[in-house]
Amino acid sequence: MKFHGVDRHKRYWTISQRDERCQEVGFVAHQWDVEGYLQGLGRGDVVALEASCGTFCWADRIEARGASCVVVDPYRFRIIRDSWNKTDRRDAVNLSLGLWMAQTRGECRLPEVYKPSVTVRQLRQLFGQWQIVNKQVRQLKSQIQGVLTEEGVPLDRQQAQRLVDTPSGAQKILEALELSAVSRFCIQMSLKLLAGLLEQKELLRVQILRAGGPLESQVRLLIGIRGITPLLALAFLAEVGDIRRFTSLRRMNAYLGVVPRIHSSGGITRVGHLNRSSRSLARSLFTQAIPHLVDSSPELGKWYEGLAERKGKGRARIGVLRRVFGIMRRMLLNETEYRWLEPDLFKRKLREYQRVMEKVEKIQEVA
Questions:
Q1: CA distance 337 to 335
Q2: Which of 38, 93, 226, 341 has its CA 20 to 30 A from that of 60?
Q3: Nearest Cα to 340, choosing from 348, 349, 350, 331?
């Protein structure tokens, strides 16, 4: 067996190789021919890579050669994190040494990074694009509202909603408003951009459902909860990946960013704000569906009202997310339907989901 520690860069790799006796049998400071290096790997090789952009793709290619690959978190790998003299050679040597110790002696445990499946990685990439588009949509809507405010044009809530949500029919609303030529031009430009973004957003939604095809059975389970659409279900599945890797509900909720920081010292415990460094996609999307989630069961609605009176609506909303995520976790682990399933609503959602999936299949056939 050979143990490879790789410090990866854009144009070259720095590689340290050790044998079963921990002797360094090879070192390459600048491996420019990465493809040639991959061709030389086999079943007897174990490779350690630092987690960074593109690491999972290279890990897949290494494993396709029959070798094993370990993705290491450099922020938790103390040998690299606490190194005073940090160089490419030292990082590669320390990775190969730590890999040898973990694989042969069990003297240390490498802080490995969870490697999601290809489906989950594609969904995360698409949802990243979804967040970018949503941000641009919000910016354009705010810009339109700002121009109207500057002009002193009062619009009620319904008119403002029609103006930004139906860009194609917004011209009639604009004709009835007294605006300067510059303001009218700015609003019309923003509405054209908004119409294009909304069109792309719909295409993106279809692409997300298409990429989430392998997770269809899990999506069918989760949409049994009122307020959870196939898009929300896929967002949750993309965030958690393999649900079985979390040994407890609290660990999963901490990963999803719905557990507050806790500082306890000297018998005094202080509960802080949410951990913003965790994943935030599911938290941000599910927050918009909280009114429907609260109505999904009488018990949850009663619990939410009581908590809102005692702690406030902000903490109550986060509490609802924690409970709903826990319910979804149990449903996936036990493969059971939602206890308060509404048959008529579930059938409508299922028909809509099937219709979109049939549309996706036609797109794939044409492609």
A1: 7
A2: 93
A3: 331
Which residue carries 């306890």 as its tokens? 264
Q: What is the pLDDT of residue 362?
A: 74
CA 61 to centroid of chain Cα atoms: 23
Angstrom distance (rounded) from CA 193 to CA 200: 11
Decide: 346 and 223 in contact? Cβ < 8 Å.
Answer: yes
Q: By the 8 A CB rule, do 74 and 50 touch?
A: yes
| 212 SS3 class | coil
Task: Tell me how far apart the alpha carbons of residues 247 and 235 are, in angstroms, rounded to a whole number.
Answer: 21
Q: Is a pLDDT exceeding 90 seen at residue 176?
A: no
Boundaries of every domain in the chain: 2-105, 118-211, 215-356
User: Does pLDDT of 86 surpass 90?
Assistant: no
pLDDT at position 41, please? 93
Instruction: Kindly report the pTM of this predicted structure.
Output: 0.86
CA gap 228, 222 in Å, rounded = 7
- Alpha helix (H) residue ranges in the chain: 34-39, 55-64, 78-81, 88-100, 118-150, 157-165, 170-175, 181-211, 216-222, 230-240, 249-256, 281-287, 290-294, 298-311, 313-334, 343-366
| CB contact at 8 A, 195 and 170 | no
pLDDT for 46-80, tens place per residue? Answer: 999 999 888 999 999 999 999 999 999 888 887 66
Average model confidence (pLDDT) across the chain: 87
C-alpha 228/C-alpha 346 separation (Å) is: 10
What single string gives the DSSP state of each residue in 27-83?
EEEEE--HHHHHHT--TTEEEEEE--TTHHHHHHHHHHTT-EEEEE-TTT-HHHHT-
> H or E element: which one contains 6?
strand 2-8
| Residue entry with tokens 């320390």 | 94
CATH superfamily of 2-105: YqgF/RNase H-like domain (3.30.420.140)
